[in-house]
Amino acid sequence: MPKIKPVNVGLIGAGRIGSFHGETVVRRLVDAELVAVADPAPGAAAKLADKLSVDASYTDVADLLAHPGLDAVIIATPARFHANILVQAVEAGKAIFCEKPMALTLEDADRAIAAARVAGVPLQVGFNRRWDQAFAEGRAAIDAGKIGAPQLIRSLTRDPGPFGADPDKIPLWTIFYETLIHDFDTLLWLNPGAKPIEVFAMADALVRPDAKGKGFLDTAVVNIRFDNGSVAVAEANFCAMYGYDIRGEVFGSGGMVTMGDVRRSSMTLFDKDGVSNDTWRRDTDHFVQGYTAQLASFVSSVRTGELKDAPTGSDARNALALALACIESVSKKQPVIVE
Ligand SMILES: NC(=O)c1ccc[n+]([C@@H]2O[C@H](COP(=O)([O-])OP(=O)(O)OC[C@H]3O[C@@H](n4cnc5c(N)ncnc54)[C@H](O)[C@@H]3O)[C@@H](O)[C@H]2O)c1
């Protein structure tokens, strides 16, 4: 049988998640090839390219986009660069996988969505939880009517402690733009067709109270009211000392689904100290299956030219609108109506 031609992927941003995505393309996907890496930090692209046996590395995105035969790009730069690079890549005719958040303003989100529409290229955003088996099965149960109409919905992100980052290096409002954005997408996705109408967010610096004066926030709780009557809660904290804890729950008129487990596996140790489990410590361990499945789905969309059951630019915009509403709510210390 003739071998299927691989989809040629370029990686933009060779940092923490970009390196992991690059490794996924090289080691975990069978029908895609990583052909080039770009990163402006001296040596970063070359180092990753060398590690993954990729021939081409660039410090300039334009050079990567001109790489012969390139079909698609993965954008894994810091968030503030996403929209411009996305538009640049779309205008070069490349299919886009963009890490979250796709943009930091609704204007940039609209610009990115419009550019992809005009170019006719797939635009997928990195809301990987949708591919986690438990979350995917939860959504399937909701679609099958097994829990009736959603009434109470919950999603949480607790990043693993100890918290070692420098708060001064974390952009303002990151907890909403980059952390809870996953939960916003999850809540919207688990409540199909419902539109958020009101948001009330509270946030604080409980992990690093010393940094609060500069606007740093590491803990937040968000209430969201939807137009189908359901109410959701999203919460986040940057320092769960017991591990990387991601969970979701939908309670409906006919039952409930719960998703996510901080325990690494069902192996439970019984010893002189009692009963214990190891826990997830890193997103790239916990979600390796989901991260791989999202890129496999993306590669298949590059072949067909269309996304199938994947988060789009519009989904990214909807999640961003919630993040922006949260920022307004925290700033005004009051509930706000969602745009
Ligand atoms: N979906 C997830 O679970 C997940 C997990 C981690 C990070 N992310 C997202 O991925 C993005 C990157 O996060 P990270 O933790 O890998 O950051 P990082 O700081 O580790 O890496 C970013 C890299 O991008 C490079 N870069 C900066 N400007 C660039 C440009 N103009 N062109 C090309 N490369 C450029 C930097 O030199 C750096 O190597 C963020 O938006 C973050 O929210 C998503």
UniProtKB/TrEMBL annotation:
<keyword id="KW-0560">Oxidoreductase</keyword>
<dbReference type="GO" id="GO:0016491">
    <property type="term" value="F:oxidoreductase activity"/>
</dbReference>
<dbReference type="InterPro" id="IPR000683">
    <property type="entry name" value="Gfo/Idh/MocA-like_OxRdtase_N"/>
</dbReference>
<feature type="domain" description="Gfo/Idh/MocA-like oxidoreductase N-terminal">
    <location>
        <begin position="7"/>
        <end position="127"/>
    </location>
</feature>
<dbReference type="InterPro" id="IPR036291">
    <property type="entry name" value="NAD(P)-bd_dom_sf"/>
</dbReference>
<dbReference type="Pfam" id="PF01408">
    <property type="entry name" value="GFO_IDH_MocA"/>
</dbReference>
<dbReference type="GO" id="GO:0000166">
    <property type="term" value="F:nucleotide binding"/>
</dbReference>
<comment type="similarity">
    <text>Belongs to the Gfo/Idh/MocA family.</text>
</comment>
<protein>
    <submittedName>
        <fullName>Myo-inositol 2-dehydrogenase / D-chiro-inositol 1-dehydrogenase</fullName>
    </submittedName>
</protein>
<dbReference type="InterPro" id="IPR055170">
    <property type="entry name" value="GFO_IDH_MocA-like_dom"/>
</dbReference>
<feature type="domain" description="GFO/IDH/MocA-like oxidoreductase">
    <location>
        <begin position="137"/>
        <end position="257"/>
    </location>
</feature>
<dbReference type="Pfam" id="PF22725">
    <property type="entry name" value="GFO_IDH_MocA_C3"/>
</dbReference>
